[in-house]
Design goal:
The chain has about 475 residues and is α/β, with parallel strands linked by helices. The chain has 2 domains: about 5-215, Enolase-like, domain 1; about 220-475, Enolase-like C-terminal domain (TIM Barrel, Alpha-Beta Barrel), CATH 3.20.20. The protein contains 17 helices and 12 strands. The chain has helices at about 5-25, 95-100, 110-130, 135-155, 165-185, 205-210, 260-265, 280-300, 320-330, 335, 360, 375-385, 400-410, 425-435, 445-450, 455-460, 465, and strands at about 40-60, 65-80, 85-95, 230-235, 270-275, 305-310, 340-345, 365-370, 390, 415, 445, 470-475. Strands 4, 5, 6, 7, 8, 9, 10, 11 and 12 form a 9-stranded mixed beta sheet that branches. A 3-stranded antiparallel beta sheet has the order 1-2-3. Helix 3 (about 110-130) crosses helix 4, helix 4 (about 135-155) runs antiparallel to helix 5 and helix 8 (about 280-300) crosses helix 9. It is globular.
């Protein structure tokens, strides 16, 4: 996270002591108490983690890569308050190494192994931290240590490239989620209701700078989740749009073409993955999806539906994006009108891509950063470069997602919550984020397409989340204590 404003200097001075106490704890020395803990605060007693593997039902292509499997990182934690009350929490997230740690030189297993090694270090660091605080403050103190651990793992494993910050955020996210989950359960509140001044020691200026002086985080969070939200269905770059695209049917009872999925789930929101290296292919893909969707929706008597377009940073430059938009608008005005937003068209490292500003494109449709969003510094740079939207993701951590949601709302940016093909508890976490942030209009839930087996045990517990009808997810149930999953 980005430290800003006049509180930054205070934070640095305080955090130096925090680092000393952290190192003392790691070495087994007595913990230095910085301030009396609030009665509402918690500390971590224990953290444990495990991995769970699933094969995809069908491959998913995005960003020039094809993924056919997922490893879940599941985290259990135990926390206690100053009165000695003990509560357990749980967090889960896919280790999306292809997305968070893309590499042209290291194979899938190499980057996945790096994330597993980092998970071990994050577990050790979190177990060693014994100061009391709100979950956001615990994450605030530990994130710099997690990033140092990522550097150490990179050197220890002699990786071709260092573990990126985005990858570190993904790896730490289930640890952060487990702590938030336990904290909410301790206070018998949903975790999204546990961000007010009655529980947090700091206002938003402590994290986001003086512009947020006097503002409480819960100002930017809905007290109750939206009762229902449209579901965004994904059309991957190698997914069958029509029957003619299928070489061999799976025949497992689930849909296999876009019309089948539209009818099966009553879809109104469709996300289209694009390649970014062939304007003609990208344009033809959108027009083909729009044509098939229009034919299918007409049979259903539906006249309104929308698209989001995701290039996964593969456009070589903004000129490519503008040419693509212009051709879509010329060849399919109706299809263009249905585009709700465009996601991460060019490279994720905005500092190395400063010439590709989005001011002109953003006049046509919201242009959203996703892979680029790793903290407030990235958000501010994106705004300077003309981006008008931000994609929040549970896989970047509950703490960061909430702070970035507040900042983006303050700056009146378009907001969406994106999936990481999250199954089970990770989907509940992601859906809870979407349902509690004002302005987020829809939910992605790709696991029901690509890894439904990982959802199977959850369908009877949360039928409104995992069984989609009329294109809607029933998110009103996401108000249980903690993050609602268990």
């Amino acid at each position: 996270m980005f430290r800003a404003g006049s509180t930054y200097n205070i934070y640095v001075l305080t955090n130096r002591f925090s680092r000393r106490s952290f190192l003392s704890a790691a070495l087994g020395a007595p913990m230095l108490s910085l301030a009396a803990a609030r009665a509402t605060d918690i500390r971590v007693d224990a953290i444990g983690y495990s991995f769970e593997d699933f094969m995809y039902r069908t491959p998913l292509k995005f960003g020039g890569a094809v993924v056919d499997r997922v490893t879940l990182l599941n985290v259990n934690c135990t926390v206690r308050n100053s009165a000695g009350k003990v509560v357990k929490g749980f967090g889960s997230m896919p280790l999306g190494n292809v997305w968070s740690f893309p590499s042209k030189t290291m194979p899938y297993d190499r980057t996945l192994s790096a994330m597993k090694a980092l998970a071990e270090q994050i577990s050790r660091i979190t177990n060693s931290y014994k100061e009391f605080g709100h979950p956001i403050d615990i994450n605030w103190a530990l994130e710099p240590e997690y990033l140092k651990a990522a550097d150490a793992v990179s050197k220890s494993l002699k990786l071709d490239a260092p573990v990126p910050k985005l990858c570190t955020l993904v790896t730490m996210s289930p640890f952060d989620a487990a702590i938030h989950d336990a904290y909410g359960k301790l206070h018998n509140r949903n975790s999204f209701q546990a961000c007010g001044s009655d529980l947090m020691s700091h206002d938003l200026s402590h994290y986001l700078g003086n512009e947020f002086k006097g503002e409480s985080l819960d100002k930017y969070i809905l007290k109750q989740p939206k009762s229902t939200m449209p579901l965004y269905h994904l059309v991957g770059a190698v997914d069958a749009v029509t029957e003619a695209d299928i070489k061999t049917r799976i025949n497992d009872g689930l849909p296999e073409t876009l019309p089948e999925w539209i009818n099966y789930n009553g879809l109104t929101n469709i996300k289209i993955k694009l390649n970014g290296d062939d304007v003609k292919w990208d344009v033809d893909r959108v027009i083909a999806v729009d044509r098939v969707a229009a034919e299918t929706q007409a049979k259903r008597g539906l006249s309104k539906w929308v698209y989001s377009l995701d290039f996964n940073e593969k456009c070589p430059n903004v000129a490519y994006l503008l040419a693509f938009i212009r051709q879509i608008k010329e060849k399919s005005p109706e299809g263009f009108a249905r585009i709700q937003y465009i996601e991460q068209p060019t490279k994720r490292d905005l500092n190395l891509d400063r010439s590709n500003v989005m001011h002109q494109a953003a006049k046509l449709r919201p242009i959203v950063i996703d892979e680029s969003l790793t903290g407030q510094d990235a958000l501010m740079l994106a705004r300077e470069m003309g981006y008008t939207g931000a994609a929040l993701k549970a896989c970047k951590g509950q703490s960061q997602a909430l702070l970035m949601a507040a900042a983006a709302q303050k700056y009146k940016m378009f907001l969406c919550v994106q999936d990481l093909t999250c199954p089970g508890a990770s989907l509940i976490h992601s859906a809870g984020l979407a349902a509690h942030i004002p302005g987020v209009a829809a939910i992605e839930a790709n696991a029901r397409q690509y890894v439904p087996r990982a959802n199977k045990a959850w369908e009877s517990k949360f039928p409104g989340i995992f069984v989609i009808k009329d294109g809607q997810m029933k998110t009103g149930v996401l108000n249980r204590p903690g993050l609602s999953a268990v």
